[in-house]
Amino acid sequence: MSQIGTPENPLRVAVIGAGPAGFYTAEHLFRAVNVVTEVDMYDRLPTPYGLVRAGVAPDHEKIKNVTRKFDATAANERFRFFGNVDIGVDLDVSTLRRFYHQIVYATGAQVDRRLGIDGEDLPGSHSATDFVAWYNGHPDYRDLEFNLKASSVLIVGVGNVAVDVARILCRTTDELAATDIADYALQQLAESEVKTVFMVGRRGPVQAAFTNPEIKELGELQDATTEISARDLELDPLSEKQLAEKPDRVISKKLEIMRGLVAPAAETRSKRLVVRFLESPIRFLPDENGHLGAAELVRNKLVEGANGRLSARPTDEKEVIDVQLAFRSVGYRGVPVPGVPFNESWGVISNNHGRVMDGVDGTLRIGEYASGWIKRGPTGVIGTNKADALETVEAMLEDAESGHLLQPETPEAVAVESLVRQAQPDFFTYEAWKRLDELETQRGARLGRPRLKYTSREEMIAAVRS
Ligand code: NAP
């Protein structure tokens, strides 16, 4: 047999997960000089793009243009998509090892982190990740129910996901109708009775995780005022000292944007978004029906840790606010892939710069890699995954060069296809996805919307067959 990585004997790679991390991995592999690679990309959904489809806020349409890059990668003749194939359910990793030289896990971070407070599981208390997946039409989340009859909502956390959720709750129906938000979500949000949204950060404004364009956008909503109290924007001595010692233009700009929200325009708007800092919920309280009725918040102060990081410590100042709906938005976590070592405390696949590592003794697993959020945790923007994927691909190519590869019994592309067909007869090729894409766009155009998503697997399968 000729050397692996040649046209006659290509390097055969399975990428698990068709989000940004998966596509950037494939892109870098195809760019490698002197190594011919074939990529089979698997996703448990029939549709590709991961969080670009199911996570990016529907009113951030421009961000979704990155899918054109992914389509360009998918157009490579050595690329195949096996959508609607759940690795760990339809096919397991040990089977894949018989067909590929290398396997890359790019499965992202699908679930939320928890607060660990009383009442967190009351009806009406949810993770932001569930709500995001719901309004974006993710098939596994479309049947969730959220109490949009609530008049007050609490969002815990001040990252960009919290901002997305706040914006979607505060947008008008017209604003939302101009997006590709799931149709059922549009209908339910049109009937929403939400009047006040509290978005609460445990630390101060200097430590707010949201980025500047995102907080600025909150001041530009059509029919909602965004406000921050002057007290919350007063800098505590520790933050002030850190900023004085290490000036940061981005943070200064963020503070300036937030100061512009201290005295919002007096005109009457339908909704209020109140951003608060230095507060944490300590328990959620039920109403008389056992549903979420209120949240008890404690005022925090900042203390400096050994590494210079400022963290929140509770004071004695407490307050109860009435809220009937709450979203915790305190970060995502990865989900283990059956048969792959997982670091429970970090919520990522155990790895060393992308090479999967057995948790117990830290030995590297031959031919297995991680890329994106499942490798480094849920940080950064979509583009951050490009550099992250490059690191993984460099490790893969180095291992290919030195012959540290899986030894598949049947590396032929055709063999895998028949295996997939057996395991999941309704798998989606990229051509099937592009057909669905076209149908969604056509359905949307008829309503003056960018796209009308199909939101169940059955609908998707029926649509491409018709
Ligand atoms: P994030 O940026 O890490 O923010 C998490 C927030 O939760 C922080 O405010 C954090 O506060 C807070 N938090 C963590 N544990 C907490 C606890 N126990 N109690 C109270 N608050 C707690 O995460 P994210 O918002 O989920 O976003 C994930 C990544 O996706 C980020 O990199 C984000 O920028 C990116 N993203 C980008 C966009 C965009 O570009 N428009 C949109 C969505 C997401 P501390 O700082 O005190 O830990």
Short description:
The protein contains 17 helices and 20 strands.
Characteristic terms for this protein:
20 strands, FAD/NAD(P)-binding domain, Rossmann fold, 17 helices, 466 residues, alpha/beta, seven-stranded mixed beta sheet, binds NADP nicotinamide-adenine-dinucleotide phosphate
Topology record:
Elements: E1 11-16, H1 20-31, E2 37-43, H2 51-54, H3 67-74, E3 79-83, H4 93-96, E4 102-105, E5 111-112, E6 125-127, H5 128-135, E7 152-156, H6 160-170, H7 173-177, H8 183-190, E8 196-200, H9 212-218, E9 224-228, H10 230-233, H11 237-245, H12 249-259, E10 271-276, E11 279-286, E12 292-304, E13 310-322, E14 325-328, E15 332-333, E16 342-343, E17 348-349, E18 351-352, E19 355-357, E20 364-370, H13 373-376, H14 384-401, H15 413-423, H16 430-446, H17 457-465
Parallel strand pairs: 1-2, 1-4, 2-3, 4-20, 6-14, 7-8, 7-14, 8-10, 9-10
Antiparallel strand pairs: 5-15, 11-12, 12-13, 16-17, 18-19, 19-20
Helix pairs in contact: 1-14, 5-6
Bound molecules: NADP nicotinamide-adenine-dinucleotide phosphate.
Would you give an account of this structure?
This protein is of the alpha/beta class. It has 2 domains: 195 residues, NAD(P)-binding Rossmann-like Domain (Rossmann fold, 3-Layer(aba) Sandwich), CATH 3.40.50; 218 residues, FAD/NAD(P)-binding domain (3-Layer(bba) Sandwich), CATH 3.50.50. The protein contains 17 helices and 20 strands. The strands form 5 sheets. Strands 3-2-1-4-20-19-18 form a 7-stranded mixed sheet. The mean pLDDT is 96. Bound molecules: NADP nicotinamide-adenine-dinucleotide phosphate. The site of NADP nicotinamide-adenine-dinucleotide phosphate has 25 residues, from helix 6.
